[in-house]
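Contributing new records

If you add data, match the layout below exactly. Sequence lines come first and carry their own label; structure lines follow with theirs. Keep one chain per record. Anything else will be rejected by the validation script.
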Amino acid sequence: MGTSQLRAFSTTEKVHERMSRHPRHDTLPEMALRRELHGRGLRYFVHKRPVVALRREADIVFPRVRVAVFVDGCFWHGCSEHGRPPKRNEGYWKTKIDGNRERDSDTNDRLRDAGWTVLRFWEHDSPLTAADSIEAVVRGTVLSPDHLAVPMALIGS
């Protein structure tokens, strides 16, 4: 959906301005996770396409071991625990969030098909627990499923 189409659905110019200021990169949960990973001696790329031909960026990428990490926002990706639908333009937002979830699933499938391991975490997940899961995969350690940040944190491995 293009910018002009998105603006057409905004309730007011004020709402459009407020929503467009939400950070897409370097969010607080993402930065906390990156600091934790860096403190553990893990080195990675940020906001990089794991597969150049695929127009999808992962938040954190470990290219040598083909691990792509995404930190999904509860609102934007429809977290069942914390994502609350807006009261205005419900149809627009439902379509938007459903589209984000479909794209996430498609991204997982495409990266997995290309030989990547996809790790997804919610913004509300503990950075320490998420880092434990990521470190285990990157370093090749096996963790018990109950130690993962989210039951579906290891997608495609």
